Amino acid sequence: MRALVLLVLLVCLSVGCVAQRPRPCTSPPLLTGSLSVSTQNEKLGAFAKYTYDALGQRIRLREFGSYNNKTFHLDVLLLYREGVMYKINYRNQTCCKKRLNRCFHPLAIPHNASLLGQAVLGSSSGPGQGVLVNTWTGQLQMRNKTVKYMSTVTEFGCVPVTTLFHSCRDGWRITSFFNNVLGLSDPQQLIPPNFCDDAKLEEEEGEEPATFYSLF
Fold first, then answer.
1. I need a surface site. Which of 16, 75, 85, 137 has the fewest CB within 10 A?
2. Is residue 7 part of a domain?
3. Cβ contact 189:78 at 8 Å
């Protein structure tokens, strides 16, 4: 009888351990917040406020920073389903419409990612003093090249915290998310303003400072 009880306890403990092991996850489909991006080669350093809609495949970025020692300020709306990107200038009431030749990738941990570890950001000494996060690592195929990544998300909710990508050209590219809010604080941010109605499609020339769109 004791042997049976011990066996049942061992099975329950084993199931509990398996259930507690972190698994790859997908971030909330609607997010609003801020992020910073920098590269190891110091070409790019930027801050942005973002609005993210995975359901409609739309992203709004209002950013400023430096690229190749030149400062820039951009307000862009990415509409992946339509395959277009709007560069918006409210001061001049102008709008530039360009092709968006990228596939939409939701913020998520790939299924084949490897768990690097679990940690508490802040302190675990008292309630509300820390956040439990999981860090994952792996490789992704992007535009005919393989890049390494390391991504940290919260254990509860899968909210993005930091993401590192490594490529031969830029070295490590670090993206940090902060002030994240679930949902869309202003849905109008994902709709082109009226003065964009007459914008005509233009061809892209050269490399844009905001090439970190690919992090999405």
1. 16
2. no
3. no
3-state secondary structure the chain: CHHHHHHHHHHHHHHHHHHHCCCCCECCCEEEEEEEEEECCCCEEEEEEEEEECCCCEEEEEEEEEECCEEEEEEEEEECCCCEEEEEECCCCEEEEEECCCCCCCCECCCCCEEEEEEEEECCCCCCCEEEEEEEEEEEEECCEEEEEEEEEECCCCCEEEEEEEECCCEEEEEEEEEEEECCCCHHHHCCCHHHCCCCEECCCCCCCCHHHHHC
pTM: 0.82
Question: Is 12 a domain residue?
Answer: no
Which residues form the domain of 143? 30-215
Instruction: Answer whether residue 11 is part of any domain.
Output: no
CATH number of the domain residue 184 falls in: 2.50.20.10
Q: Could you give the number of structural domains in the chain?
A: 1
Rounded Cα gap, residues 92 and 198, in angstroms: 15
